[in-house]
Amino acid sequence: MKITILAVGTKMPRWVDEAYSDYAKRFGRDIALELKEIKPEKRGGGVTAEKGIAAEHERLIAAIPPRARLVVMDERGKNWTSVKLAEGLKEWMAGGDDVVFIIGGADGLSQELKQRADVLLQLSAMTLPHGMVRVMLAEQIYRAYSILNNHPYHRE
């Protein structure tokens, strides 16, 4: 199974890259976790938030692999526990599905992309820095993977 995180934003602080990499390398052979950074649209000079979101939408759509489950991160999405994420991961693996998690840019994501999502998922009701979302999402995916493999990383 391949899990891709599409994240709008580039040039993250070193601690973000290091923390993300630490979790990404923990998976076994049955899951590959990949991060694809999507160039954010520059704001200003007549580029409104709406135009920026539209441009980022096109870049995100182009980066989504065919036939992948789409999980869009949104503060208004479902509030799953780590165990519920593990159940989702198990279902997706059983179906042979690859999964794409999408993290939007500073102004968010298009309504079209949110409506297209198989799951609209909340990481937190609070607004979080985009770099931190990458790290927290990678950690939660790893935690879900460890739950499925009875690894002692997760404790109830």
UniProtKB/TrEMBL annotation:
Q: Which InterPro entries match?
A: Alpha/beta_knot_MTases, RlmH-like, tRNA_m1G_MTases_N
Q: Where does the UniProt annotation locate this protein?
A: Cytoplasm
Q: Which GO terms describe its molecular function?
A: rRNA (pseudouridine-N3-)-methyltransferase activity
Against SUPFAM superfamilies, the record matches this protein to: alpha/beta knot
What is one term from the GO cellular component aspect held by the record?
Answer: cytoplasm
Enzyme Commission number(s) from the entry? 2.1.1.177
Query: Cross-referenced CDD domains, in alphabetical order?
Result: RlmH-like
Q: Which reaction does it catalyse?
A: pseudouridine(1915) in 23S rRNA + S-adenosyl-L-methionine = N(3)-methylpseudouridine(1915) in 23S rRNA + S-adenosyl-L-homocysteine + H(+)
Q: Quick one: where is this thing mainly located?
A: cytoplasm
First-tier enzyme category under EC? transferase
Keywords assigned = Cytoplasm, Methyltransferase, rRNA processing, S-adenosyl-L-methionine, Transferase
In this chain, S-adenosyl-L-methionine is annotated as bound at 104, 123-128
What NCBIfam families does this protein map onto? PRK00103.1-4, tRNA_RlmH_YbeA
Q: Describe the protein's quaternary organization and the partners it interacts with.
A: Homodimer.
Q: What family is reported?
A: Belongs to the RNA methyltransferase RlmH family.
What does the UniProt function comment say about this protein?
Specifically methylates the pseudouridine at position 1915 (m3Psi1915) in 23S rRNA.
Q: What is this protein called?
A: Ribosomal RNA large subunit methyltransferase H
Its gene is rlmH
